[in-house]
Amino acid sequence: MVTDSNVKNLVKILIGAAWIDGVIQPEERQYLREIAQAKGLATDPEIKPWLYELVPVQPKECYGWVQEYLGDRPSIEDCVSLIEAISGLIYSDGDVAIEEARLLTKLQEITKASESTQAAHTTLLKQIQKLYRRWVEVQN
Question: The organism sits in which domain of life (predicted)?
């Protein structure tokens, strides 16, 4: 579920991703400002200092925002959506820095872990359903 808080966190992550290599490229700057404007956050007091490069974002902050955004058990959809959003920013300047590639790789690892966790939950759920059906059959 997308909330105003999630939208704000997503914009923060995008700003952090632009800063992750230490420099915001002109194309990234334009992309961020368009996104912030479209989401109604261009004048937000929390976002504005980062958006207008008054305060740099450290990689540690960006990764913290990613963790906060995804939570402890992210859905595959949330992970993929975040990868797509960050990819749009990263590829906007036609150059992928090593730090940016690391961020995308980390997100792909989280997605894979989430997929395996969901697969395990699905298997467990199916086993419980079988047991329940057997119990219902025995009761009849």
Answer: Bacteria
Determine the average pLDDT of the residues in 86-101. 81
Distances in Å between the alpha carbon of 101 and those of 1, 85, 104, 133?
27, 14, 5, 48
Q: Indicate whether 133 pLDDT > 50.
A: yes
Q: Domain locations in the chain?
A: 4-139
Q: How far apart are CA 36 and CA 136, in angstroms?
A: 54
Q: How many CB atoms lie within 10 A of CB 14?
A: 26
**Distance separating alpha carbons of residues 61 and 138, to the nearest angstrom:** 56
pLDDT tens digits along 31-42 = 999 999 999 999
- Residues with Cβ within 8 Å of 26's Cβ and at least 6 positions away in sequence, in order, are 93
Spatial contact of 41 and 112, defined as CB atoms under 8 Å apart: no
**CB-based contacts of 98, cutoff 8 Å, min separation 6:** 21
**Would you say how long the chain is, in residues?**
140
